TrEMBL record:
EC number: 3.6.5.4
Keywords for the protein's UniProt record, in alphabetical order: Cell membrane, Cytoplasm, GTP-binding, Hydrolase, Membrane, Nucleotide-binding, Receptor
Function summary: Involved in targeting and insertion of nascent membrane proteins into the cytoplasmic membrane. Acts as a receptor for the complex formed by the signal recognition particle (SRP) and the ribosome-nascent chain (RNC).
Composition skew (Polar residues), residue ranges: 63-75, 89-98, 117-126
Protein name: Signal recognition particle receptor FtsY
NCBIfam families found in the cross-reference section: ftsY
Annotated catalysed reactions: GTP + H2O = GDP + phosphate + H(+)
Segments passing through the bilayer: none
Ranges annotated as biased composition (Low complexity): 39-51
Lineage: Bacteria, Bacillati, Bacillota, Bacilli, Lactobacillales
Residue ranges of domain SRP54-type proteins GTP-binding in the record: 438-451
Coiled coil ranges: none
Length: 471
């Protein structure tokens, strides 16, 4: 999918939302017209159906005669469903097409496929072979309703993801995004001063020095190449280049979580105190539990007073099990008990909360290595993920911590928390460029469902939607 597709998709959706009231009026009018037509049709249809029924009568047994008796009712149903279904079908097809347009372009044909199916059923209703017709109509109606319900679910999911990104990135949009917007609104020429100022802006937005330099170097070429002059052209080139560099920096990164092929999946969380580890585990446990997974938590941060209690509160809130140990006890012992329990009692996922002490790299390394050793002894390919939790509001500091953790253990991915609390969302680019670790989840707020899978397109849209204009 091209970069600007997401802008087009969102724009289309917004346009649709605006058009909806007008379309609803049209729909109502159609339904009213169809009712008038169907009243006329019912009179003529019932006459023709009666004569057809009489013709067929010799072959018809008791059952069909019941059907024939039920015919007026059936016809009423089919007439209703004719007018009703045509409108609901159109609505279904429409809602399906809304969703399709919003999601995968390659599935654009589906709504069109659905519409004819339903249309042909209403044609069946017009032919008026009573019993099968109503069955067909009922089936079609049911199918349409089911597909509409499924589509509605998808829309809700998609809309809620988009809404979460939209809300969660508001601060960055009004910070980083709006600054870039103002900068582009005021530039006169794309000259050296322009690039100097752009570099400063990018660095101040946490994109990182290295990335800011790379970006401005490549932009020099690209602006010339595309002969970009207007604000809109230059803005599009900048955003396109940012995404291009982001993609290139992480082309081998896998942003999905790695799950065990069989047995429990073990996910360890590391990161400094206050980065949001416990909260992230609580949110993630709720997420996986809602997907029907059996989740176990291990409170292996035995050093910070209150850490176990905090995780225990989440466990109770989520309705998941937890293994704890005594304060200041050996965290590896908690890990051992938890992994044993996870294996014996067939848990799907074990989340391990660890202490975030960073004052001594050697100690941290030893502690994490001991936990990993225990896990691997019990489950050979565990831990399946070691997620480093970073607080987006700490900017360059978060990057420095990340480098330290990366040297201490094999980190497999990042959870970037508190993105809602920073006005400088550029840190996502810096992480990609400097750490070469995939951001797997982002925290877009404090609520349980504010943890979202990282979606680069939604991220870019959330950050720059006020800057980009698409046809
Ligand atoms: N706004 C916002 N707040 C968050 C997010 N994630 C975590 N927090 C808050 O950050 C604070 C610290 O989170 P914790 O989960 O306690 O952090 P921790 O890394 O477990 O810290 P220790 O338990 O001290 O190791 C809490 O007040 C959380 O509610 C987020 O995505 N957005």
């Amino acid at each position: 999918m091209g970069l600007f597709d997401i802008f087009r998709r969102h724009k289309k959706h917004e346009d649709k939302q605006e058009e909806r009231p007008q379309q609803e009026e049209k729909e109502e009018q159609k339904v009213a017209d169809a009712h008038v037509d169907s009243e006329v049709a019912t009179t003529s249809q019932s006459a023709s159906s009666e004569s057809e029924a009489q013709e067929e009568a010799p072959e018809v047994d008791q059952d069909s005669s019941t059907t024939t008796e039920a015919q007026p009712q059936n016809e009423e149903v089919s007439d209703d469903s004719l007018s009703g279904s045509s409108s609901s079908v159109e609505q279904n097809a429409e809602s399906a097409s809304t969703i399709e347009e919003e999601t995968v372009t390659s599935r654009n044909d589906e709504p069109e496929e659905e519409a004819p199916t339903t249309k042909s059923s209403s044609q069946v209703a017009e032919v008026s072979t009573p019993a099968p017709e109503s069955e067909v109509n009922d089936d079609v109606q049911e199918e349409a309703e089911e597909s509409a319900a499924a589509s509605d679910d998808e829309t809700v999911d998609e809309e809620s993801t988009a809404a979460k990104y939209d809300q969660g990135l508001e601060k960055s949009r009004t910070g980083f995004g709006a600054r870039l917007n103002r900068f582009l609104a005021n530039f006169r020429h794309v000259d050296e001063d322009f690039f100097d100022d752009l570099e400063d802006l990018l660095i101040e937005s946490d994109v990182g020095y290295d990335m800011a330099m790379k970006l401005s170097d490549e932009l020099r070429e690209e602006v010339k190449l595309q002969n970009a002059k207007s604000k809109q052209e230059v803005s599009n080139v900048i955003i396109e280049k940012m995404v291009d560099l982001y993609d290139r920096a992480g082309k081998d990164e896998k942003s999905d979580l790695n799950f065990a092929k069989e047995g429990p999946t073990v996910i360890m969380f590391v990161g400094v105190n206050g980065a949001g580890k416990t909260t992230t585990i609580g949110k993630m446990a709720a997420l996986f539990k809602s997907q029907g997974k059996k989740v176990l938590l291990a409170a292996a941060d035995t050093f910070r007073a209150g850490a176990t209690e905090q995780l225990d509160i989440w466990a109770k809130r989520d309705g998941v099990d937890i293994v704890t140990g005594p304060e200041n006890g050996d965290p590896a012992a908690v890990v051992f008990d938890a992994v044993q329990k996870a294996k014996k009692e067939n848990y799907d996922i074990l989340f391990v909360d660890t202490a975030g002490r960073l004052q001594n790299k050697v100690n941290l390394m030893k502690e994490l290595a001991k936990m990993k050793r225990i896990l691997t002894r019990e489950i050979p390919d565990a831990p399946h993920e070691v997620l480093l939790v970073l607080d987006a509001t700490t900017g360059q500091n978060a990057l420095n911590q990340a480098k330290l953790f990366k040297e201490s253990t094999d980190v497999t991915g990042i959870v970037l928390t508190k993105l809602d609390g920073t006005a400088r969302g550029g840190i996502v680019l810096a992480i990609r460029n400097e750490l070469h670790l995939p951001v797997k989840y982002v925290g877009l707020g404090e609520k349980v469902n504010d943890l979202q899978k990282f979606d680069a397109s939604e991220f870019v849209y959330g950050l720059f939607k006020d800057l980009v204009e698409v046809d």
